[in-house]
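User: Okay, second chain of the day. Same drill as before: sequence in, structure tokens out.
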Amino acid sequence: MLTSTAEALICQNTACLQAYPVVHGVPILIDERSSVFDISDYVESRDTYFPSQTRLRRLLGRLVPDIGKNLKAVTNYSTFAELVLHLDAKPRVLVLGGGELGQGLEELFRYAEIEVIESDVALGSRVAVIIDGHSIPFRGEMFDGVIAQAVLEHVIDPYKVVDEIHRVLKPSGIVYAETPFMQQVHGGRYDFMRFTHLGHRRLFRRFDEHSSGAVSGTGMVR
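Assistant: Same drill. Structure tokens below.
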């Protein structure tokens, strides 16, 4: 259980007794025992994930054609919304890596009855809470859906993160995950994994598969 003060959330569990700071209105719920991130990173405003871009990189980004367009995201998120709405009249969905609006994710916000909690390891305008997917600070079976779009390639132990996703999902809950097989290195020093289709299915072996497939075409990065 957490109690709130003006500057922190205090864990009342006798095995915890941890104070989690609130920075710019965002709780920093990082378990330092299982994370590469330190709470002090956020308190002292150090970069935790998003690499800074030079003016030249920003200029090139505007001039070079986009090869990362997601061709299936809108359809996939529309299906995801329908599925979670079948589970609950007011479903709760956790987004991992939600510091930036993922392609197609706006589909979920068309439904006022879906509660979307956007989390990340970096502060951002969309982030409601800072968490590390290796230790998700929510009780089990709390969410109807979890989204991990372009996230699992950036975590040290994707199997541990998927176990955490399984734990916080309700028994009939839905997970939507996009993870690259062929994509250039991105995310600076936080880029670790790639998965074939079969490897991705192995990663989610504790889940029944609703559907799967590529989200981009030949010559694209996803």
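Residues 105 and 183 are 21 Å apart (CA to CA).

User: Thanks, on to the next one.
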